[in-house]
Amino acid sequence: QIYKASTTAPVNIAVIKYWGKRDPKLNLPTNSSLSVTLSQSDLRTHTTASCAATYPSQDSLLLNGQDQDVSGARTQACFRELRSLRQKLEKSDPSMPKLSTLPLKIVSENNFPTAAGLASSAAGFAALVRAIANLYELKENETELSRIARQGSGSACRSLFGGYVGWEKGSKEDGSDSVAYQVAPASHWPQMRALILVVSAAKKGVSSTTGMQTTVATSSLFPQRANETVPRRMKEMEKAIQEKDFEAFGNITMMDSNSFHATCLDTYPPIFYLNDVSRAAIKVVEAINVVAGKIIAAYTFDAGPNAVIYYLKENEAEVAGLFKAAIGEKEGWTGIRGDAVLANNG
Ligand code: DP6
């Protein structure tokens, strides 16, 4: 008999960036972060988790048809935590099938380029954790699952919630208080839109895991960012979201992206995620805001050159329209995807 469960998890794009670990093993961050979860209909990972006594004895993971190494500490941590929760259920109810002892087979498909700085690990681990939790019929809520997904990839903990999502860095050594929480559902501010400019679908040069550890070790700008700038911006950003103040939201989003990339540049050896096309996108956003006389568009960049532009639906023509018109002329932009913000956790 094969036991099976499927799910999808969307990508999230941070407006206050997670960059730096205080504990690389447990994936505990040096600062809190905040993101917007995108709609399931566009960028997402679809995952099926199954288990059976007839499967080969090793757990396996297939991503976009390719066999992945599951022996890594992160995947192992997720499997271990989920299995132990299932074990507890099996102990309390002996009539339950002993799924925790069976080999797992995970099959995932991304509908966007993997590891190109499009938050693929976020959607990937969020979907993996939720699929196995469904397969095991676990009763844990999103907060508890976010603690597990975090160990797979930090940003993944935020993809378990829809809308506007925070990740509290926590202070406990065991990481039990380093979890995601919903700041507001997407329905609170449903006019929010995100435009994704795919500059390059190539795999990123420096992985976030390696990059952030080098930043923590070498950047002199980093302590200021982690200890002062981000804690202040977390409060300002939550307020901007509560008050649906796009000017504040956009301003903090752009400043925080710039601050994150400044610490990358201040890392030794330096890390360059932005390229000329990224910088051209920044210029276009600046021009749009100058013409509007206020901030109606905000850019943000993760660990790669692709731009995400946040704007409100009412400014669709001025923002998305302009980018879509420009894309035909601009060398380097290989694609563009407009998208709404997710309504609910799927
Ligand atoms: C720039 O979550 O990919 O996108 O925890 O090492 O897997 P690991 O890192 P990851 O880092 C994401 C970094 C970022 C900012 C963010 O999403 O907050």
TrEMBL record:
It comes from the Eukaryota. GO terms for molecular function: ATP binding; diphosphomevalonate decarboxylase activity. One of its GO terms (biological process) is sterol biosynthetic process. Pfam families: MDD_C (PF18376), MVD-like_N (PF22700). It is an enzyme of class 4 (lyase). One of its GO terms (cellular component) is cytosol. InterPro entries: GHMP_kinase_C_sf (IPR036554), Mev_decarb (IPR005935), Mev_diP_decarb (IPR029765), MVD-like_N (IPR053859), Mvd1_C (IPR041431), Ribosomal_Su5_D2-typ_SF (IPR020568), Ribsml_uS5_D2-typ_fold_subgr (IPR014721). SUPFAM superfamilies: GHMP Kinase, C-terminal domain, Ribosomal protein S5 domain 2-like. Pathway: Isoprenoid biosynthesis; isopentenyl diphosphate biosynthesis via mevalonate pathway; isopentenyl diphosphate from (R)-mevalonate: step 3/3. This is Diphosphomevalonate decarboxylase. It comes from Lojkania enalia.
